[in-house]
Amino acid sequence: MLTRMRLLRGATALLYIGPLVAGMCHFGWGLVAPFTLIFVVWLMVLRPEQWPASPQEWLTGSAWLAALAQILSQVALIAVLIGIGRGIGALAGFLPVVNPVLPLSISFLAIPLCRMLWDAREAADHGYFLDEDAEAAHAPRVVAEAGKAIVPLLNLPDSASDAQVTAAISKALSVASADLRLKALVAALAQPGRSHLALRQGLILWASEPETVASGQVPHAMSAAFSFAEGSPDLLRLYLPRAIALIAAFPNRAADFPVPARLRQAAVAASGSDPNADLPVHLRDDLRDGLRALARGIEAALAEAADLAPRGDIRPQTAARTA
User: Fold this and answer.
1) Dihedral class, residue 220 (left if φ above 0, else alpha if ψ from -120 to 50, else beta)
2) What secondary structure letter does DSSP report for 196?
3) What tens digit of pLDDT does each residue of 202-259 get?
């Protein structure tokens, strides 16, 4: 992807060379309109986040004003480039004789070349952006798409089969923006009155897969999984053995697990459960001990990571103070 970005810069240069050549050949300002069309199409291809994404958005006044500002900025840029080209031609002392289609073709060639090298939406899905403005413009759309993507998961019935739940979760979370979708799921399932037992169980199994934890591509997946299990003894009995094994196997991923204080708070809540509840006392004790064991394991892993962290050499600072 980084190589494509470098090649993209070279292909983009063709876009600007066209007006320069037109100016060097002393063509009239009548070429500004076709150059503007080419530049605007290039912007739509390379920077779709700067344009309305739906017909409904195009119907708003703010969208038309934004589009007009984009077009006027391209007209100004083209005029400057043609003016620079005319200055270069005047300094060179001769005017090349070419067909007016040539400079237009040079600029137009940048559109298919850049499109072959760069798919803005695909790159955004993998976390690559042309600049900070593109990333900032894409952020609200990613959040909206994350909320839309989890709707099929929330519509899964509790009677859904394991294969159906697994397939739906894999489809929804096998993207670069899986962390946003997971956060949206945490928020959605935190609402009271939503059981989604099959979905919660599937999400816990997905988050506690060794491949998910080891890769670290979805930060705080195990913390999110605890949110899905918290308050449910059955789900905690599924979560705790896997979490304890994973923190021992991957201590470097301790930051992705729930904080120990939260686990100890859950252990206290489990200890104070209603004695008339259906869960036997020995199972409640097992859950309490498991929560505390996981908290100790995470604390040990975090302490080990802190000990292994490189410490700065303080001698230069000491020398500076004594100088």
Assistant:
1) left
2) -
3) 999 999 999 999 988 888 999 999 999 988 888 999 999 999 999 999 999 999 999 9
